[in-house]
Amino acid sequence: MNLKEQLIWDQLNIELKLFSIDPDHNLIHFLLKLESFLEPENNFSTLENEITQLSFNLFSQCKDLPENLQIKKLNEFFFNELQFKIGKKQPNLLLSQLLKSKKSSAITINVLYCFFCTRLNLAVFPINLSSSVLKWVRGGKSSYLNLENNGKLATEKDLVKFLNKSESQKDMFEISSQCDQLDDYLDQLCQSYEKENNYFAALSCLDLLLQGKPSHLPTLKKRSALKQKLGLNKEALKDFNTYASYSEMNTSDKERLIELTELAHGDIHNTSTTIH
To answer: 22: Cβ–Cβ under 8 A, 6 or more apart, which residues?
Structure first.
């Protein structure tokens, strides 16, 4: 990393700790900072100013309206005026791409929609069921908004459809925390970069995930595999050893441990030979 990248990386790690302390820490700010690290050509301040200006424009249209009309106006602004929508075919997760192409993944649409709701003081939250569904709390009652249908109220049929598709083991209609949202985003972003064979960017996403959950076994195993692809065999072995110490290994895992051990020892031998 150069000095600028190291400074941004340090800031990201500091902000990660804030999410566990402050549940309302600005997720949009973090994702834009992350984007400026992963995609240096995307200027953080420019993107933040653009999104802030959009929120000001929305606020001026919604000021003094009752909640139900604010939601209506937000949907008109978000889905009709800005023309944002959930892309169906492997959409890019970055906020900069959403602003350009108007399409993104459900989780990116979810995060930006919730950001606008926060600016309007609307009690709208992500839930465990799906990134395409939000909980709207008002007057002690909850309704659900379907982001796949321009933010309109979800019908019972909609909710059953999402329930049948969901793989979550959590209470489906419980509010999802910012930490969980961030973990989900980083995991999906990692998968996106892997498909593009951008393994260094994918590795950065996993590094951040493990900052928050250092002993999360599936992520450790995945990071080990990525490091091996990058030729970082000693680091890959270290991750896999940590994974192995907490899990019951199957035959495939045992074979991989042997393979990594041989590769790592080969690296050490080659380095030693080079020095002599």
So the answer is: none
